[in-house]
Amino acid sequence: MTTAVVVGAGPNGLAAAITLAQRGIEVTVLEAAETIGGGTRSTERILPGLLHDDGAAVHPIGLASPFFRSLNLPAHGVEWGWPEVDLAHPLDGGRAGAMLASLDATTGHLGPDAGRWRRLFGPLARGFDDLAGEVLQPLLHLPRHPVRLARFGSAALLPADVLGRIWRTEEAAALFAGNAAHGWRPLSRPATSAFALMFTAISHRYGWPVVRGGSIRLAEALAKVLTDLGGRIETGNRVRSLHEVRSADVVMLDLEPGAVADLAGDELPTSVQRAYRRFRRGPAAFKVDLAIEGGVPWRDEFSGRAGTVHVCGSAAEVAAAESSINNGHMPERPFVLVAQQYLADRQRSVGDVHPVYAYAHVPHGYTGDATEAVIAQLERFAPGTRDRIVGLHTRSPGDLQRHNSNLVGGDIIGGANTLAQVATRPRITTNPYYVGIPGVFMCSASTPPGAGVHGMCGHNAALSALDRIARDR
């Protein structure tokens, strides 16, 4: 029987393992940590019973993932929960933009921008499943829906601050800019509109749900699928050299490029070694978990009902903050993402004390303390927040890397989303998953299609390995 070893039990490693096991391959997953999950772990960090997500918190791409949908995860314990409002973006003066799952409900709050919003996002939402099948794989492929992909690409390639000029209201402009900031790039750079288009279209197709019981439930469900297929998972088993796993016919590495280079050593072809060492990292996150009595006292009408809140202010302020971090400077008012998962999952709270998840976009490898900057941004749009905080836990970029070695310098997106790197991640090659060593493949978020809890990096990498196995027979 063909055998495979997968190094890393995050969503992509588990997805790769499942894909191989579905084809009758004997799979063993080795995880260095004592628990599975990678970026989907959940813990009680501040108060007993108060549940915080350590990494990914809200899962629009997870629900939309073609691979995850093929597994029927609800049958394995995944229960999705939706807040009343997908996304809010507060502005000064008690105003806010709001994004709701219904296109009609969203446009009803956008005044003179209602028609433009509908014309831009309506077709994307209606055809999102076809579009997801195109963009959640390597850029170089034969498209099954070329017209839909071309229509998306013509707008997606624009800088967000160029396409964003169509908006007449501050609310629509802020929503668009905040979604574009999920690319962690200056909004003046080409293709930053792609992030705004995708995240908004997903909202109007699937919403922005959470996993009830914590994001870890998603990893646990994937593990259940794998073990039902006969796969095995070993935690607390750190692989320090590729030689330790080379007895397997296939090796899948859910690791960032530098770690692959370290693991493979001299086995890695020189050109691949150079490419992996040159791989560009993205900016960092500074994470602040809060226990807040009564929740955040947002001033506007939407943020208190929103599962996700983008906290930064106007579109111009978002653009300035993203430009600063990409230039290595810590902004006074950073872009802060806040998740209030308890609104869709009340079991995460303890009485009237609620877990609030937040992280600021900061420069790569930032060594300062951004806690006060995060709280100040909350106070700006929710006066009195500070007085309600009964506990907090912070993780700097360095802490994030120590917790998960794939998060180099606090980069939680698997590498910088420059146009060149998005097109060629993790190196220039026709097969981005193959590392240049027979039988060895990379399947982390540093491979296409990149960051997000969708499993497609692992699934695609495993399909690449299966194709090579078939050709070698």
TrEMBL record:
Pfam families: Amino_oxidase. One of its GO terms (molecular function) is oxidoreductase activity. Residues 13-260 form the Amine oxidase domain. Probable oxidoreductase that may play a role as regulator of mitochondrial function. Interacts with COX5B; this interaction may contribute to localize PYROXD2 to the inner face of the inner mitochondrial membrane. This is Pyridine nucleotide-disulfide oxidoreductase domain-containing protein 2. The lineage of its organism: Bacteria, Bacillati, Actinomycetota, Actinomycetes, Mycobacteriales.
